[in-house]
Amino acid sequence: MGKPKQNTYLLQVDDLDVPVKIYKERRNSIRASLGKKHAILRLPLFLNKKEEKAQIDRFYLWLKDKILIEDRFRKRFETKSIHDGHQFTLYDRTFTVKLVESNNVGHSGKYLGDDTIQIKLAKDADGTSAYREISVLISRVVAKVYLPIITRRVFAINDQYFNKNIKSVRLKYNTSNWGSCSSSSNINLSTRLLFAPIEVQDYVIIHELAHLIEMNHSHRFWKIVSDIMPDYKNAEKWLKVNGHECDF
To answer: What is the model's pTM?
Structure first.
């Protein structure tokens, strides 16, 4: 079976330029969805040009309703930037980002103390075009500050409920998931999780530690999670609703 035909372009919705992917593939139904970086429309191959245009028009109206009604979708596609003096709060500490120009080829980040993070930007770079790179650098600095705290929390929960061997705990900037557990007993958590309430952080930690027993999402796995945290679905809901705001 051949690969589905795909077109990618920007669709202006209200005041936003939304990246859109339209797939034409062997299917009987029409499906619209919102990914983390694109709005996606999947169309059957058998549609003629008139039917295809009608479905794209419907898709536009659907997308407009989604973005205008639900703020979390609008924020997903807004142009983001980090400026000198940008601040964010983790736990009870407010960090300030200091942007300085550098003659270096790449960007770099450093913790200066007093809750100040210095980001050296390569010459001619700005906080909008380098947003993602700056976020990663800030994340790396924050990871060094908070890794001891998170590591103690992971081991405390492990000692209380699991008593399993943990090889390492790592904090890294990850937008595809909130955490992971490797077969080598490494627990990886996203620095974005630091923006979540403690009980939500605990849920993700419990979720990953449960994988030390069940490396899957079977009924047995979810029973382990629910026995420890009966209301874990509240934490999942919080991440679904508020996760887009957990970023630097």
So the answer is: 0.74
Structure tokens at 108: 């770099």
pLDDT tens, residue by residue, 212-248: 999 999 999 999 999 999 999 999 999 988 888 898 8
End-to-end CA distance of the chain: 42
Distance CA 134, CA 123 (A): 14
Give the per-residue SS3 of the chain: CCCCEEEEEEEEECCEEEEEEEEEECCCCCEEEECCCCEEEEEECCCCHHHHHHHHHHHHHHHHHHHHHCHHHHHHHCCCCCCCCCEEEECCEEEEEEEEEECCCCCEEEEEECCEEEEEEECCCCCCCCHHHHHHHHHHHHHHHHHHHHHHHHHHHHHHHHCCCCCEEEEECCCCCCEEECCCCEEEEEHHHHHCCHHHHHHHHHHHHHCCCCCCCCHHHHHHHHHHCCCHHHHHHHHHHHHHHCCC
Half-sphere exposure of 128 (CA within 13 A, CB side): 2
Locate 175 and state its tokens: 């937008």
167 near 186, Cβ under 8 Å? yes
